[in-house]
Design brief:
The protein is an all-alpha fold. It folds into two domains: 48 residues, no CATH class; 110 residues, AhpD-like. It has nine helices and no strands. Helix 5 runs parallel beside helix 7. The radius of gyration is 16 Å and the shape is globular.
């Protein structure tokens, strides 16, 4: 059970309704995490910077690579909501088999997991592998993107945000 109730559109203030409308228009739905974040518009706005970072990452990553990276972080953080969200995308697109990763995808998976598990333990070897696939600007963007992914995991886990109903079918996949 969620520690903080979601804000529904009907009970939201004017500025929260604007954020709600914008999210539905640009991303198709308003998740329970986003409805929870609406209690604090600065928090909502900060975490919604995930989307501009994702869009920048799309300049050098495929959607599959982004999903692998985000899934790795979320699974490492035991964030059921986010890991199921990215699992759903991968299953629905037919690309859920992580046993067949290419070296670049494996580097993203490993880096994502390590960012979530213990960023102090990102060793020179892992960084050298990243440098084989990405330049400095891209690595900085990936690291910031990981930070926002970790922040969304934190919101979901610490506040025990309820699982969105559209994700329930992916729990046992």
């Amino acid at each position: 059970m969620a520690r903080i109730p979601v804000i529904e559109y009907e009970s939201a203030g004017e500025k929260a309704r604007e954020r709600f409308d914008d999210q539905v228009a640009h991303n198709g739905r308003m998740t329970n995490m986003k409805k929870t974040l609406l209690h604090s518009l600065p928090a909502f706005d900060a975490l919604m910077q995930w989307y501009p970072l994702r869009d920048e990452a799309r300049k050098f990553l495929s959607d599959r690579e982004i999903n692998i990276f985000c899934y790795a972080i979320s699974a490492q953080n035991d964030c059921i909501i986010c890991s199921l969200f990215f699992r759903k995308i991968m299953v629905d697109s037919g690309g859920a088999d992580n046993s067949k990763l290419n070296p670049r995808e494996q580097a993203l998976l490993d880096f994502g997991k390590q960012c979530a598990a213990d960023p102090h333990a990102i060793g020179d070897g892992m960084f050298a592998v990243l440098k084989q696939h990405f330049n400095n600007e891209q690595i900085v963007l990936l690291t910031a993107f990981a930070g926002l992914m970790i922040a969304t995991n934190l919101i979901n886990n610490a506040l025990k945000v309820d699982l969105d109903t559209y994700l329930e079918a992916y729990v046992n996949l």
